[in-house]
């Protein structure tokens, strides 16, 4: 099979090489500070005895797994710490295909591009299922698309790129579809701390043995470079997922897990609330400026991306490059997120220059 380089890297490289000043809104790399306790724990780690520099348990440091289990209200044996949510998704999706229950994955359109990529990597076949105009789940469309061939349904809430926060009853509806066709449901909750509606509920609350929840600390602690995530699997899937994790990685990074474990215990809700408030302000300011620009956009209920559409300027790679060169703003082409938002461009609000970017866009499209 041929592996495609993720388009994110292509756009970032293009923006980096541009002549002029470019506001980078391509990928979801937070620009804010991690929790103070995380920096402290990292410094402390450097002073530990060399035994602490050796392999951690493959499934993750016990204290981190316990802390995750307590927060998520699940048995600790169900938790495997992974190299980011990315690996957690890979392990979870692999479980779905390993059961001889079909080879199809139903993915919601627009889609986070790594899901179809991973599906193909694992020998599965992705099918895109439409969502509602605002990005919320269309349970009937999923029911219609599901068949005996369906091994897996992947959901992401709060959603990248639409910003939709799925209501738990819709997620329950999807789990019922999965039960009917013997599929697993992977719910990627990496943006769970970025819910501006106050309505987000984890799929774990459904208590279903069909559901694998994945998440991580890349976004919530602003540490995409640390690579610490986790999967919470039903009992029967936990051991095989841990075995795959061990065979692929041996283990994850011990210092990163140590720092995250400390920060998880020491960081109060204020840190997360402040980050959320800052992003909510950015969303307000950016969308107000888009109004000025006469652009259509979706106002995110969660996560930190805004999809915008400019009249007569579809979200192709060529147009995104034009915006970099001619307007000094870099986003992601809508065409990279499946078929539903080909006309749109996604902007990640991970820069204090978001408003400046929107003003540049307004001027460009004047
Ligand atoms: C929906 C979604 N899942 C997973 C990831 C990857 O997260 P991690 O850095 O924890 O691997 C991202 C990163 O942007 C994402 O948007």
Outline the fold blueprint:
Layout lengths: L6 H10 L6 E2 L11 H10 L16 H11 L6 E4 L1 H14 L6 E6 L4 H8 L3 E6 L8 H7 L4 E7 L11 H14 L2 E5 L22 E6 L12 E4 L2 H15 L4 H13 L2 H24 L3 E2 L7 E5 L7 H11 L1 E2 L1 E2 L11 E4 L5 H12 L1
Parallel strand pairs: 1-11, 3-4, 3-5, 5-6, 6-7
Antiparallel strand pairs: 2-8, 7-8, 9-10, 10-13, 12-13
The protein binds pyridoxal-5'-phosphate (PLP).
Write a brief caption for the model.
By secondary structure, the protein is an alpha/beta fold. It contains twelve helices and 13 strands. The model has no long low-confidence stretch (mean pLDDT 96).
3D structure, described in words:
By secondary structure, this protein is of the alpha/beta class. The protein has 2 domains: 7-34 and 270-365, Aspartate Aminotransferase, domain 1 (Alpha-Beta Complex); 36-266, 3-Layer(aba) Sandwich (Aspartate Aminotransferase, domain 2). It has 12 helices and 13 strands. The protein has helices at residues 7-16, 36-45, 62-72, 84-97, 114-121, 139-145, 168-181, 235-249, 254-266, 269-292, 317-327, 354-365; strands at 23-24, 79-82, 104-109, 125-130, 150-156, 184-188, 211-216, 229-232, 296-297, 305-309, 329-330, 332-333, 345-348. The strands form 3 sheets. A 7-stranded mixed β-sheet has the order 2-8-7-6-5-3-4, with helices on both faces. It has a 4-stranded antiparallel β-sheet with strand order 9-10-13-12. The protein has a two-stranded parallel ribbon with strand order 1-11. Helix 5 links the parallel strand 3 and strand 4. Helix 2 packs across helix 9, helix 4 (84-97) packs across helix 8 and helix 10 runs parallel beside helix 12. The chain starts with 6 loop residues before the first helix and ends with a helix. The model has no long low-confidence stretch (mean pLDDT 96). Residues 28, 84-86, 112, 156, 160, 188, 190, 216, 218, 224, 229 line the site of pyridoxal-5'-phosphate.
């Amino acid at each position: 099979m041929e592996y495609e380089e993720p388009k994110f890297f292509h756009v970032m490289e293009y923006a980096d090489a541009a002549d002029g000043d470019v506001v980078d809104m391509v990928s979801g790399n937070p620009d804010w500070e991690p929790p103070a306790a995380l920096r402290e724990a990292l410094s402390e780690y450097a002073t530990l005895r060399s035994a602490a520099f050796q392999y951690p348990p493959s499934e993750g440091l016990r204290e981190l797994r316990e802390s995750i289990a307590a927060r998520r209200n699940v048995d600790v044996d169900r938790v495997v710490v992974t190299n980011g949510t990315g690996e957690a998704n890979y392990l979870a999706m692999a479980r779905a295909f390993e059961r001889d229950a079909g080879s199809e994955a139903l993915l919601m359109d627009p889609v986070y591009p790594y899901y179809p990529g991973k599906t193909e990597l694992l020998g599965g076949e992705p099918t895109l299922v439409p969502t509602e105009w605002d990005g919320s789940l269309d349970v009937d469309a999923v029911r219609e698309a599901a068949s005996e061939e369906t091994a897996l349904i992947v959901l992401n809430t709060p959603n990248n790129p639409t910003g939709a926060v799925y209501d738990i009853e819709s997620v329950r509806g999807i789990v019922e579809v999965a039960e009917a066709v013997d599929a697993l449901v992977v719910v990627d909750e990496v943006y769970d701390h970025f819910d501006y509606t106050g309505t987000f509920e984890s799929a774990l609350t459904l208590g279903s043995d069909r559901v694998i929840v994945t998440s991580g600390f890349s976004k919530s602690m602003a540490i995409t470079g640390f690579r610490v995530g986790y999967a919470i699997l039903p009992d029967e899937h936990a051991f095989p997922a841990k075995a795959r994790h061990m065979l692929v990685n041996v283990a994850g990074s011990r210092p990163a897990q140590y720092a995250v474990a400390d920060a998880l215990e020491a960081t109060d809700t204020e840190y997360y609330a402040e980050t959320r408030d800052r992003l909510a302000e950015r969303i307000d300011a950016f969308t107000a400026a888009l109004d000025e620009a006469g652009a259509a956009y979706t106002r995110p209920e969660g996560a930190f991306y805004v999809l915008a559409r400019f009249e007569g300027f579809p979200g192709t790679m060529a147009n995104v490059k034009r915006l970099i060169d001619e307007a000094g703003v870099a986003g992601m082409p809508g065409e990279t997120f499946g078929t539903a938002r080909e006309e749109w461009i996604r902007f990640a609000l991970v820069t204090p220059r978001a408003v400046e970017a929107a003003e540049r866009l307004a001027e460009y499209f004047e």
